Automatic annotation (TrEMBL):
Keyword set, alphabetical order: Signal
Xref: InterPro entries: 6-blade_b-propeller_TolB-like, Beta-prop_PDH, Quinoprot_gluc/sorb_DH_b-prop
The UniProt record lists the keyword DNA damage: no
Highest taxon, organism lineage: Eukaryota
Protein name: Pyrroloquinoline quinone-dependent pyranose dehydrogenase beta-propeller domain-containing protein
UniProt keyword Signal present: yes
Gene3D superfamilies found in the cross-reference section: TolB, C-terminal domain (2.120.10.30)
Signal peptide: 1-20
Domain Pyrroloquinoline quinone-dependent pyranose dehydrogenase beta-propeller: from-to ranges: 42-435
């Protein structure tokens, strides 16, 4: 195979465009007109942070077009597009799409020519021109997604086969028992073939193929260089556990939030991850039967369905995180040596937790696959990079935040400035650049 063909294949797997190379930009120390950091923060000594944009509305997702322009999904405001000057600061901002109920999902095909955006119920596509930063030809791709407690809908183009699109819907309650049936179209990720969209769009519940289900709220998922997707899952709240006839409150440190190996959507179908019957342990001290961090448990074990049943049937998480951290987004660095995850922060734990960006070291195994360095039962498999100064004092209820940022989007800058991270605090939507000193 010719070198040019090999590069094209590799670029497709990584979601890159071989026809465009984004010019590098300097990391600015500050940008004129951008308000100061709204909240107090702590930054890891190996990193720097600066605020690149403010006065936005609830930043949820950040992506890049093939010209290096930044597209931002602002909850209910729409999709904005931002260009940069030679100093690395934003020099123009325009609303690409206003309103329309668009609230979270946003992605581009690897060639940069088709844009996807979602509301709570509907996935749309547009033809996109990165040179003019204009859209045209809006189409409904998927419709009829369930409404409920979790309104975010993440969309991801499969980089190695961009006619396939992944679309996620969370549960409609804390314990959505009906979601154990895939036909509900909840707590799952489905695959849709864009080459075969019917007139008026697919029906989410009855069409498409099931990639994975039993995923309570898998808001963030991203491919590694092999095309295997890794997802972060928000688990349940206010849990008690009935064991040996006694009911105990376990909600402060259980169940764990999850990092799931979801597999390759070009081949995997109908994988089950446990919800709404199986949950993962974070703090084993809440249990009396020797369960380890990362293993599954049921809320009320009995003779016919117990912890062992779950651990034999449901796919276990590859790694887990402190309960109630609320992971929202994840992304790999260029060589997939690390994954970076934003923790939105808790609303029902005392003391509160989350409100930070963490780094999860990965390694490439002998068979060429990628995997976290830490074992599955580790509680120290990640490092804080950027966080609220005193997370225990943060207060949150939904998007309402009185004294801390709520971290959401995470996306590496193709111009080399660092990791762009968003906050959807209702007081002010912000975007920061986290940059490693080395």
């Amino acid at each position: 195979m010719r070198l040019s063909n090999l590069l094209a294949v590799a670029a497709a797997l990584l979601g890159a465009d071989v026809h465009a190379e984004v010019a590098k930009l300097p990391l600015p120390k500050s940008c004129s007109g951008v308000p100061n950091m709204r909240y107090q923060y702590t930054i890891n000594s190996a990193w720097t942070v600066m605020k690149i944009a403010g006065s936005l509305k609830q930043v949820r997702t950040i992506i890049w077009d093939t010209e290096g322009n930044m597209l931002v999904q602002q909850n209910t405001r729409g999709i904005s597009v931002h260009t940069f000057g030679a100093d690395g600061c934003i020099n123009s901002t325009n609303m690409l799409i206003s309103g329309g109920g668009l609230n979270h999902g946003l992605d581009l095909t690897p060639d940069g020519k088709t844009l996807y955006g979602s509301s709570e119920t509907t996935l749309y596509s547009w033809a996109y021109d990165p040179l003019t930063r204009q859209i045209s030809n809006q189409k409904t791709v998927v419709k009829g997604m369930s409404t409920g407690v979790h309104s975010s809908r993440t969309v991801k183009v499969v980089p190695g086969q961009p006619n396939l699109v992944l679309l996620q819907v969370g549960s409609n309650s804390n314990l959505d028992m009906a979601a154990q049936q895939p036909s509900t179209g909840r707590a799952c990720i489905k695959v849709f073939d864009i080459d075969k969209v019917p007139s008026g769009g697919y029906s989410y519940n009855t069409q498409g193929e099931m990639f994975g289900y039993g995923l309570r709220n898998e808001i963030g998922f991203v491919p590694d260089p092999n095309g295997v997707f890794w997802g972060v899952e928000n688990s349940g709240d206010d849990f008690t556990r009935t064991e040996n006839g006694q009911r105990r409150d376990i909600h402060t440190n259980n169940p764990a939030e999850k990092l799931n190996n979801l597999g390759d959507p070009r081949t995997v179908r109908n994988a089950w991850y446990g919800y709404p019957t199986c949950f993962s342990v974070w703090d084993p001290s809440s249990f009396t039967n020797g369960l380890k961090t990362g293993q599954h448990f049921v809320i009320a074990p009995n003779s016919s369905y117990n912890d062992a049943t779950c651990n034999g049937k449901a796919i276990a998480p590859r790694l887990t995180f402190q309960a109630h951290s609320a992971p929202i987004w994840n992304t790999f660095d260029d060589e997939a040596k690390n994954m970076y995850i934003t923790f939105h922060g808790s609303w029902n734990r005392q003391p509160p937790t989350g409100f930070k960006v963490v780094q999860v070291p990965f390694t490439r195994l002998a068979d060429g696959s990628y995997d976290p360095v830490a074992p599955a039962d580790s509680r120290t498999g990640y490092t804080d990079i950027f966080s609220a100064t005193n997370p225990g004092s943060c207060t949150a209820n939904g998007l309402t935040m009185s004294n801390c940022f709520r971290l959401t989007a995470a996306s590496w800058d193709p111009a080399g400035r660092g990791l762009f991270v968003g906050s959807d605090s209702s007081a002010e939507g912000e975007i920061y650049i986290l940059s490693p000193k080395s």
